[in-house]
Write a structure and sequence with these properties.
The strands form 4 sheets. The protein has a 9-stranded parallel sheet. Strands 1-2-3 form a 3-stranded antiparallel sheet. The protein has a 3-stranded antiparallel sheet with strand order 7-8-9. By secondary structure, it is α/β, with parallel strands linked by helices. The protein has helices spanning 44-49, 59-64, 68-73, 77-81, 93-97, 125-135, 153-180, 197-209, 227-237, 255-263, 273-279, 318-326, 330-357, 360-373, and strands at 3-10, 13-20, 23-27, 29-34, 55-57, 87-89, 103-105, 110-113, 120-123, 139-141, 186-188, 190-191, 216-218, 247-249, 268-271, 282-285, 288-291. It folds into 2 domains: 3-271, Queuine tRNA-ribosyltransferase-like (TIM Barrel); 282-373, no CATH class.
Length: 377
């Protein structure tokens, strides 16, 4: 039920197949983010037609509203949202740790103030497991202590060691829930340690000592550190990560980040940027980023990206998309969001084909050169 097989490799890059209770995911793959149980502004069928194989739900936000008990009462998040394909839920760790000034961290867990109503809440490794269990995603993430991207060694060590201690509690509670009421859900741990190579290795060694695992996530990156530093961390972990487990790089999902991550052995990605950028009129294309509000697009009959096969690019010209944004018509936000999701999903598909053909490195270099040097000013 939770099986991963690598079908082809080129260098560190991998093409594989991940079998989950709600379906199969061909990797490498991008996961659109459904923060409140929905990919922002889009119908589930639109997300499916964009090629998404798996989406992510947000434990923190769904816990606050409508509450996991409500979702469980109607049959779980798949049924609640009508998304029938695989789903992963994060632990809530990143969200509560980003509430600077509204939370306090202790060994037991994190006490925080709800951004919705000001109520005081507590999230612990055990309660994170219980919430995710009630949501019913295929993959639940361990509760982790996230530190800023520029955290010094001492702070990064504290977060890493606490994440390992919390992993023991997450696993114990998840096993208990499974024994009480068998369900098709697996638990993945998260590698932490900031930008410090020795801490990252200690984190991974601690995780493997507690294994085996059906997948391993890499967290705490793309949180303020320079991109070459992120690449260095991934390169250091790649030789030690188990070949038989999928690797999930959390919160990373810009186009160039996908290709650089795949080149360093990553299988799964997620990020809110696809829809967030789409709502602000910023579109990724094969020749760079496009600001859809730009004046020179006023009479453009070109598709947003002539190389793209999404529902936006195969139907609407740039001039019409610009008009929708200038008129503050919500259709514009939705159409560019659809394109951005399809763009990232398709980039995973293209990478998968290239890895199988042994041409990924050339594909990556050519793609990045076009993307960075031919985009709009």
């Amino acid at each position: 039920m939770f099986e991963f097989r690598v079908a082809a490799t080129e260098g560190l890059a991998r093409a594989g197949t991940l079998h989950l209770p709600h379906g199969t995911v061909e990797t490498p793959a991008f996961m659109p983010v459904g923060t409140h149980g929905a990919v922002r502004g889009l119908h589930p069928e639109e997300v499916r037609r964009a090629g998404a194989q798996i989406i992510l739900g947000n434990t923190y936000h769904l816990h606050l509203r409508p509450g996991e008990s409500v979702i469980a009462a109607v049959g779980g998040l798949h049924r609640f949202s009508t998304w029938e394909r695989p789903m992963l839920t994060d632990s809530g760790g990143f969200q509560v740790f980003s509430l600077e000034g509204l939370r306090s961290i202790g060994e037991q867990g994190v006490e925080f103030v709800s951004h919705l109503d000001g109520s005081r809440r507590t999230l612990t490794p055990e309660s994170s497991m219980e919430i995710q269990w009630a949501l019913g995603a295929d993959v639940a993430m361990a509760f982790d202590h996230v530190v800023p991207g520029q955290a010094d060694w001492a702070l990064a060590e504290e977060g890493m060691e606490r994440t390992l201690r919390w992993l023991d509690r997450c696993r114990a509670r998840h096993l208990q829930l499974t024994s009480e009421s068998p369900s098709a859900q697996t638990l993945w741990p998260i590698v932490q340690g900031g930008t410090h190579a020795d801490l990252r290795l200690r984190s991974l060694e601690g995780i493997l000592a507690r294994g085996p695992w059906t997948g391993i996530a890499i967290g705490g990156l793309s949180v303020g550190e320079p991109k070459p530093v992120m690449h260095r961390v991934l390169e250091g972990l790649a030789p030690i990560l188990p070949v038989e487990a999928p690797r999930y790089l959390m919160g990373v999902g810009f186009p160039d980040d996908l290709l650089e991550g795949i080149a360093r052995g990553v299988d799964l990605f997620d990020c809110v940027a696809a829809t967030r950028n789409g709502r602000h009129g910023s579109a990724w294309t094969s020749t760079g980023k496009v600001n859809i509000r730009a004046a020179h697009l006023k009479l453009s009959e070109e598709p947003l990206d002539p190389a793209c096969d999404c529902e936006t690019c195969t139907r609407f010209p740039r001039a019409y998309l610009r008009h929708l944004f200038m008129a503050e018509e919500m259709l514009g936000l939705r159409l560019v969001s659809i394109h951005n999701i399809r763009f990232l999903v398709r980039l995973g598909e293209q990478s998968r084909v290239a890895i199988r053909q042994g041409t990924f490195d050339r594909f990556r270099r050519d793609w990045l050169e076009r993307y960075h040097h031919r985009g709009e000013p």
